[in-house]
Amino acid sequence: MLISSPTSGVLIPIPQYPLYTATLAQHNGRPIPYYLDESKGWATSVHEIELALEQAHKVGTVPKALVIINPGNPTGALLDEETMIQLVHICEKYSLVLLADEVYQNNLHKREQFPFTSFKKVVRKLDSHVALVSFHSISKGVSGECGRRGGYFECTNISEPVVSLIYKMVSVGLCPPLSGQIGVDTMVRPPKEGEESYALWRKETDATHAALAQRTNVMAERLNTLPGITCVDSPGALYLFPKITLSQKAQDAAREAGKEPDVFYSLALLDATGICVVPGSGFGQKADEWHYRLTCLCPGVEEYVGQLETFHQGWVEKYGV
Ligand SMILES: Cc1ncc(COP(=O)(O)O)c(C=O)c1O
């Protein structure tokens, strides 16, 4: 509905979850990329968003919405409340719909130090009129695994006629499968303290979150000791997005093989170890920078980090840093 003409654009963070640009392409809209700041833990910068808006105006793109992924995929970054307030103000200033992708809101590795705040809370606190759509999903490691799909979006400050139209459009799909509906119900109404299943639910949920946090921590710490790799220790989501320096020799070998350098590295890693990472070029990154995305879902972190280290050392011996 936001993409009302081929000049309509949506601000998308880079690196991004690639289904956003894919969906925009499908609906004939334009992505307006804005860069996250890796040097500040993949922070979202209002300045970068304003630069992207200026660029969009120059090419005749009409900005309609701002996508924020919090916690981030692939970066794992988490917004603080101060930044969220600034982002709501940006949406007010430029009449943008705020699309708050909060599907990783329960995947927090350092809850005390880095808590999650929803955009709905911030919008309400500011008494803002910004139109907000918040997304949540069951597939992020606890209520459901990746094969179990279910989720919702919630509309705040969106007028009744528009909500009616959304209902009409969504109703074309009849209803989601029963398993997805049950999954969403268990996510939004978890057992309460004092109920029979509370203790087991708490124990299993906490154990899953603790394991994800521990693996993320081990991976970030060990990756940061490798030559030519720097890795932001992410406070949330299910990912790390380390930066890899690839020597000219490695870049030349990649080009000769007809591959992007980070794709070349990732395929070599897969061949050598069976570990499948996603090259940074799949998510977008600054020119001449290389990354890959690792997930913390897999148990056995000591073993696979060991394999990553051995592979990388061999790579450095062959191609240099
Ligand atoms: C940032 C982000 N948003 C949305 C989704 C979609 O989640 P689901 O397929 O569970 O609806 C994903 C899934 O990986 C994601 O990473």
TrEMBL record:
<comment type="subunit">
    <text>Homodimer.</text>
</comment>
<dbReference type="Pfam" id="PF00155">
    <property type="entry name" value="Aminotran_1_2"/>
</dbReference>
<dbReference type="InterPro" id="IPR015422">
    <property type="entry name" value="PyrdxlP-dep_Trfase_small"/>
</dbReference>
<protein>
    <submittedName>
        <fullName>PLP-dependent transferase</fullName>
    </submittedName>
</protein>
<dbReference type="InterPro" id="IPR004839">
    <property type="entry name" value="Aminotransferase_I/II_large"/>
</dbReference>
<dbReference type="InterPro" id="IPR045088">
    <property type="entry name" value="ALAT1/2-like"/>
</dbReference>
<keyword id="KW-0663">Pyridoxal phosphate</keyword>
<comment type="similarity">
    <text>Belongs to the class-I pyridoxal-phosphate-dependent aminotransferase family. Alanine aminotransferase subfamily.</text>
</comment>
<dbReference type="GO" id="GO:0008483">
    <property type="term" value="F:transaminase activity"/>
</dbReference>
<dbReference type="InterPro" id="IPR015424">
    <property type="entry name" value="PyrdxlP-dep_Trfase"/>
</dbReference>
<dbReference type="GO" id="GO:0030170">
    <property type="term" value="F:pyridoxal phosphate binding"/>
</dbReference>
<dbReference type="InterPro" id="IPR015421">
    <property type="entry name" value="PyrdxlP-dep_Trfase_major"/>
</dbReference>
<feature type="domain" description="Aminotransferase class I/classII large">
    <location>
        <begin position="4"/>
        <end position="296"/>
    </location>
</feature>
<dbReference type="GO" id="GO:0042853">
    <property type="term" value="P:L-alanine catabolic process"/>
</dbReference>
<keyword id="KW-0808">Transferase</keyword>
<keyword id="KW-0032">Aminotransferase</keyword>
